[in-house]
Amino acid sequence: MTLTVVLLAFVTVPMSISGAAVALPDIGEDLHTAGAPLQWVMNAYNLTFASFMLVAGSAADLWGRRRTFAAGAAVFAAGSLAAVAAPGIVLLDLARALSGIGSAGVFAGGGAILATAFEGAARTRAFAAMGSAAGFGLAAGPTLSGWLVGTLGWRATFGLHAGLVVVALAGVGFIAESRAERRPRLDATGAAVFVAGLGLLVLGVVQGPEWGWSSPGVPALSGAGAALLVLFAVLQSRAAAPLLDLSLVRNRRFLALCTVPVVTTFGFVTLLSYLPTYLVGAGGFSPQRAGTVLLWMTVPVLLAPPLAGALVNRGASTRLLIPSSLAMVAAGNAWLTVIGPSSSALSIAGPLLLTGLGVGVSFGIGDGAAMSLVEPERAGMAAGFLNTLRIGSEAIVIAVYGAVLVSLVGTRVDSREVAAKVAAGDISGKGSDALAAAFTHALHLALYGTAAVCAVGALVIAAALAPPRHEREADEAGEAVLLGGQ
Predict the structure, then answer these.
(1) Signal peptide span per the entry (predicted)?
(2) Contact between residue 33 and residue 156 where contact means Cβ atoms under 8 Å apart
(3) Distance in angstroms (rounded) separating the CA atoms of residues 370 and 353
(4) What is the rounded CA–CA span in Å between residue 13 and residue 457?
(5) pTM of the model
């Protein structure tokens, strides 16, 4: 029951990200809005989700993992219901921000619950199931949202999210409560500085494409956010009961495993966000067909996690599987450069399958391996830090990737305005073939760039996961003794 309740919530949270994106056109038409206010339906959610994750993780250790999970689920449901009833875009954006705060509690509390409720092989299976649940939510979100928007309207999308989480809340009573034995007061100053710092940093990057990267506001916000995060690190090094114990960050293997979802963001989440735009704009696919093509990539993300978990439980090395999975993502992105305006769905199946398989393997074992390195007393803090990197990187990378596409298209077209339209999938009008070629050129360069990031990430993470020298020397000495005895 514990696993069922947590997984239901873990399906819903990513579904709220991918599903809301599909509803944006209808939201804009119904509420008579466009541009930045409409885009903040997504940005507000991602911003608060990332900013409050670490706070929610530490709160879970201090106040109770089940309590934090339940409070997060309740806040998420309240925000989703507020979105259903929102009469205008401002209140809708505020409702989405509230849902983001609740999502932080769900992810941090839920991850800590699984880490403390299960041990050994059972923990590996539980986190593999969590990876499949998150993948299913991402993959099913656009399909369910598209159907609901077409039949009942965009408000039904947020109603579905609220309903699913309410069902999960009904089962919270079956989950055992747990918390750290030592429970000092929450570091309120550290929490405020961290939320403000990460929030300003993400805000500056997210607004970059809207304001223009040369706008004074972008470096001002991002610089202020970075300065506050540096201050946060200084405060944590001196705090008696820090929000983030910096010894976690100094554990190179834990830190390496926490960067795995950051690397997959480059090679996977960017494709979820921008490949359908290319297929519809340059490829002439219908939105429904473009979504179907993505199944080549999303289905392996659903199926691979339990298989990867089973391999680990049978003795496969996490230290080898994780870098290998990232190498597959890198190869899949590089291979996808075969795509062009006339590409068929079958011609890009191979690279999408390879990318999805690599992501699915990392989803299945990465989080569980990271949490296995942390003692139960800090499970919430560790889950909060892990998911802060995951969600924060998604918000930043998606914004930067979109800006890079616009800039690359801009090298082949007359103006930035035209480049922005092309990168958004609008290549209609005179010279559409040339615009499609410009979009293809930009996408190919972006794919090579993400492939390089994933390849470098795989090498760095492989090096960080290698056992320390004294452990290797002990293993070699033990092997020598064994051979001498034989």
Answers:
(1) 1-23
(2) no
(3) 26
(4) 27
(5) 0.82
Q: Identify the residue whose tokens are 């309240």.
A: 78
CB 112 within 8 A of CB 65: yes
Residue 384 CB burial class (10 angstroms; 0-12, 13-18, ≥19): buried
Element (H, E) at 475: helix 469-485
Q: What value does the mean pLDDT of the chain take? A: 87
pLDDT in tens, 388-427: 888 888 888 887 888 888 889 888 888 777 887 788 777 8
Q: Return the closest-CA partner of residue 373 out of 248, 264, 466.
A: 248
Instruction: Give the amino acid at 180.
Output: A
Element (H, E) at 285: none
State how far the Cα of 224 lies from the Cα of 203, in Å rounded to an integer.
11
Mean pLDDT, residues 202-229: 85
- The predicted-structure confidence for 112-156, as pLDDT tens digits, reads as follows 999 888 888 888 888 888 888 887 887 778 778 878 888 888 999
Locate 406 and state its tokens. Answer: 């616009």
Q: Are 124 and 365 within 8 A, CB to CB? A: yes
Token digits of residue 9:
């919530």
Instruction: Please state the φ and ψ torsions of residue 283, each to the nearest 5 degrees.
Output: -90, -15
Which string of DSSP letters, residue by residue, matches 151-168?
HT-THHHHHHHHHHHHHH
**Which of 110, 127, 142 lies closest to 14, judged by CA?**
142
Tokens 């949490």 identify what position? 371
Name the phi and psi angles at 461, rounded to 5. Answer: -65, -40
- Can you give the pLDDT at residue 484? 53
pLDDT at residue 192, rounded to an integer = 92
d(CA 453, CA 145): 32
pLDDT at 482: 42
The pair phi, psi for residue 427, each rounded to 5°, is -120, 25
The residues, any chain, with a CB within 8 Å of residue 255's CB and separated by 6 or more, are 248, 249, 464
**No. of H helices and E strands in the chain?**
21, 0
**DSSP labels for 418-455?**
HHHHHHTT---STTHHHHHHHHHHHHHHHHHHHHHHHH
